[in-house]
Amino acid sequence: MSDEILLSVKDLEKTYGHERGLLSGKSQAVRAVDKVSFDIKRGETLGLVGESGSGKSTTGRVLLQLDKPTGGEIEFEGNRLTGLSKSALKPFRRQMQIIFQDPYASLNPRMTVGDFVEEPLIVHRLIRGRAERKARVAELFEMVGLDPSFAKRYPHEFSGGQRQRVNIARAIALDPSFIVADEPITALDVSIQAQIVNLFQDLQQRLGLTYLFIAHDLSMIRYLCHRVAVMLRGRIVEIGPTEAIFANPQHAYTRALLSAIPVPDPDIESQRHPIPFDYATQNSPPEATLRPVGPEHFVLA
Ligand SMILES: Nc1ncnc2c1ncn2[C@@H]1O[C@H](COP(=O)(O)OP(=O)(O)O)[C@@H](O)[C@H]1O
Ligand SMILES: [Mg+2]
């Protein structure tokens, strides 16, 4: 990992439903992302963790400008992305990719997986010759651990893990530097999850990739992420080096998430006591800000 900051967000905000409700006349705004700030260094994996509905996917989508932020700044390699026109954004699109939770939903059932992986190469006119493109697709299949002969097959012929490998092959086709992986292993069998996590790590080393890795629990985060950001109701309540988060969690919500990690040993698992989190009394007040509690370690207080 380098010291160079690849991506930086400051006070990022996304509010849905600003318009007033037709019948009630009341504004029903949802602050999906509420003044979120963080940096990601080149070659780093930042984990983004929090329960369902906490704003993780919205953060990922807004970061890639797939959805417009309602406030804040995004900088990529020192270039400000917020406020750029569609055409000005285009050169950055190639650099930033996303992988979704459901590996089947993102595939096209009527397209061979080879054509699916080749498509971005055609759209971006990266490789002109057909034979060269096929060779690149074969290379991409090998990189994600799939036999290149599988390129002629259709999505329904694959297992969940293999489908996610196809999605990863497409995401790296344009040689991006940054990937948002939005719960990429959640829908997979537990036995397959570690393999896909290993693939992410392997590709990071080979290609120098930087990841924002989204998850709803902390179980795989420890092995994959250099730092972790914990999200609760649109806000980051704690962010820090993975070791510090696991050894010395500062926010009550982080402690609750840590206590919810299942343990493989059934005897220990049956003795485990999840710590509840009380939203009414333990949530940080609206005026709270991220305060340092250790090297690179901050808590909302
Ligand atoms: N397109 C949308 N329109 C309205 N509300 C949305 C939309 N997308 C997400 N939300 C709301 O924003 C909040 C955060 O959602 P999301 O980012 O999907 O959370 P997570 O990925 O952590 O489960 C939720 O309350 C959700 O209902
Ligand atoms: Mg989500």
UniProtKB/TrEMBL annotation:
<comment type="similarity">
    <text>Belongs to the ABC transporter superfamily.</text>
</comment>
<dbReference type="InterPro" id="IPR013563">
    <property type="entry name" value="Oligopep_ABC_C"/>
</dbReference>
<keyword id="KW-0547">Nucleotide-binding</keyword>
<dbReference type="GO" id="GO:0016887">
    <property type="term" value="F:ATP hydrolysis activity"/>
</dbReference>
<dbReference type="InterPro" id="IPR017871">
    <property type="entry name" value="ABC_transporter-like_CS"/>
</dbReference>
<dbReference type="InterPro" id="IPR050319">
    <property type="entry name" value="ABC_transp_ATP-bind"/>
</dbReference>
<dbReference type="GO" id="GO:0055085">
    <property type="term" value="P:transmembrane transport"/>
</dbReference>
<feature type="domain" description="ABC transporter">
    <location>
        <begin position="7"/>
        <end position="258"/>
    </location>
</feature>
<dbReference type="GO" id="GO:0015833">
    <property type="term" value="P:peptide transport"/>
</dbReference>
<dbReference type="InterPro" id="IPR003439">
    <property type="entry name" value="ABC_transporter-like_ATP-bd"/>
</dbReference>
<keyword id="KW-0067">ATP-binding</keyword>
<dbReference type="GO" id="GO:0005524">
    <property type="term" value="F:ATP binding"/>
</dbReference>
<dbReference type="Pfam" id="PF08352">
    <property type="entry name" value="oligo_HPY"/>
</dbReference>
<keyword id="KW-0813">Transport</keyword>
<dbReference type="GO" id="GO:0005886">
    <property type="term" value="C:plasma membrane"/>
</dbReference>
<protein>
    <submittedName>
        <fullName>ATP-binding cassette domain-containing protein</fullName>
    </submittedName>
</protein>
<dbReference type="InterPro" id="IPR003593">
    <property type="entry name" value="AAA+_ATPase"/>
</dbReference>
<dbReference type="InterPro" id="IPR027417">
    <property type="entry name" value="P-loop_NTPase"/>
</dbReference>
<dbReference type="Pfam" id="PF00005">
    <property type="entry name" value="ABC_tran"/>
</dbReference>
